[in-house]
Specification:
- The chain has 159 residues and is an alpha+beta fold.
- The protein has a single domain, classed as Phosphatase 2c, domain 1 (4-Layer Sandwich).
- 25% of the residues lie in helices and 25% in strands.
- The protein contains five helices and seven strands.
- The chain has helices spanning 53-59, 65-68, 108-111, 116-125, 129-142, and strands spanning 15-21, 25-31, 35-40, 43-46, 91-96, 102-106, 151-155.
- The longest helix is centred in the last third of the chain and has 14 residues, at 129-142.
- The radius of gyration is 16 Å and the shape is globular.
Length: 159
């Protein structure tokens, strides 16, 4: 779009994806600050890495992960679809899935206002994944999210 409209020259978007393979392997990748989480045994693990300036400061040990959550650069992305840096491609994580695992793929409209602990509790308690995703979206809106909110929740039936 930037090539067609100069007002959109620096526009871009984020992406998070998961690809399942037979044998219970899941490939997970993201560009930007949309995330993929694994919820297993009531514990949550972030599988993707944010491409924000705040995360870069964490990796440089300039600030702590806790400080990054409220840092003024938490929403400033250095890598996103549409940026020159995306040419390197995303980092890909390989996860061996187990029965009852749950995956949450979501935008920062959710993670910017709902804590990881609350995400884990909500996803763990859910019995219907569609209702879980809708409930997480509503939770973000109830927390006054000022960003777009998208999420998908996947339950692994067999590992």
């Amino acid at each position: 779009m930037g090539a067609l409209d100069k007002d959109m020259k620096n526009m871009g978007t984020t992406v998070v994806m998961a690809v399942w393979r037979k044998g219970g392997e899941m490939f997970v990748a993201g560009v930007g600050d949309s995330r993929c989480y694994l919820v297993r045994n009531k514990r949550i693990s972030q599988l993707t890495v944010d491409h924000s300036l705040a995360q870069a400061l964490v990796e440089a040990k300039t600030i702590s992960p806790a400080e990054a959550k409220d840092h003024r650069f938490r929403n400033v992305l250095w890598k996103y679809l549409g940026s020159k840096e995306v040419g390197e491609g995303p980092e890909v994580a390989v996860v061996q899935l187990q029965a009852n695992d749950r995956l949450l793929l979501c935008t920062d409209g959710l993670t910017g206002v709902v804590t990881d602990d609350d995400l884990a509790a909500f996803v763990t308690a859910a019995t219907d994944m569609q209702q879980c995703a809708e409930g997480l979206g509503q939770l973000a809106l109830d927390q006054n999210s000022r960003d777009n909110v998208s999420c998908v929740v996947i339950e692994v039936v067999e590992g």
